[in-house]
Specification:
The structure is a single chain. The protein is 59% helix and 14% strand. With 366 residues, the protein is an alpha+beta fold. It has 2 domains: 9-145 and 277-365, no CATH class; 164-237, no CATH class. The mean pLDDT is 85.
Amino acid sequence: MLLDFFPSRRLTVYLAKMFAVRIVAVLAMLVLVLMMLDLLSRTGDILAYPGNGQDDLLTYASLRAPQLVQRFLPYSVLLATIITLATLNQNSEVIAMKAAGLSAHQILAPLLLTATVVSGFSFAFNERVVTRATATLKAWEDVEYGPIPEDPDTRNNVFFNDGNDVLMARQLAGRGEASRLTGVTFYQRDDGGMITRMITGSRASFANPGWRIEDPVVFDVATTSTSRPAAPLVVAEGTSLAQITLRRVDPDAETAGQLSQSIAALKAAGRRTAELEGYWWHKFSGPLAAMLMPLLGAVAGFGLARSGGLFVRAVIGMALGFAYFVVENLGLAMGSFGGYPPLLAAWGPFVLFVLVGETVLVRTEE
């Protein structure tokens, strides 16, 4: 049995189905158009790598599409809200529902329920699909669209400082203590910054502390002699996993759980984590933007259509929705450099526009 907050079961299903169809249609249109524009700018770079062809363009599209869905799903809900309510208003269906005794909140209830389901889908989609696609795409871009690394966490051309000494590697793969380096070069320097010894190796693993270089080749600058120790050498013992984490953290490519581990590692090393904490909170507040859009776009569905104000109301609804995204990005930017606490930066815009949307709806219709 439905709660009194909802209209009848038949009307709830009718409105929810109409709204859901328009969300899918608007999202598909946006993603297709933006994908074509994106491919126009990226095709030359992808095909510039020898051997790349149409299959690689399709691979790029499959990796880029989840990012577009994530970014433009809330916009699709906003536009679908305006289209749905404006259509109902134009056909006098809103007037009929209000004449039957339904309040504005009851008319919006099926849309809010559908948007809540969309928010849940958005969170799961971001965690399971978008993060993996983003990590793979960035790893592919790092190799200039060459062969995609088997490990999306792979990073190229990394280096670590250990006091005056520097450890460089052509590639870093793996996570945590399972991290491994390939194409390793360790420069041991004196207090004046001059290189006194150079150790190279094909690969190295994390030794906790330091890095264990296998098959090392040691070059002594003072004697210009080269030696090959039989056993692996441990170098850069002053480095830590926090340095690895610091160079690898990409909030868009990590799930909420992985980002929590990265933040904990950076905190243990005394690093500033306010920006990452803001992005962590945004992983939960961001998908809820879809749930907020019906409330902000609701102004387009009420008022007399014959008064000529329908278009103006639709513009106001769009303005409120886009204002939310502007304030949301501003809040994250303020949180990034410490202007706002991470919790406020992520949740402040959402709470603010819930109050704004509710105020507009109550004052105009209730």
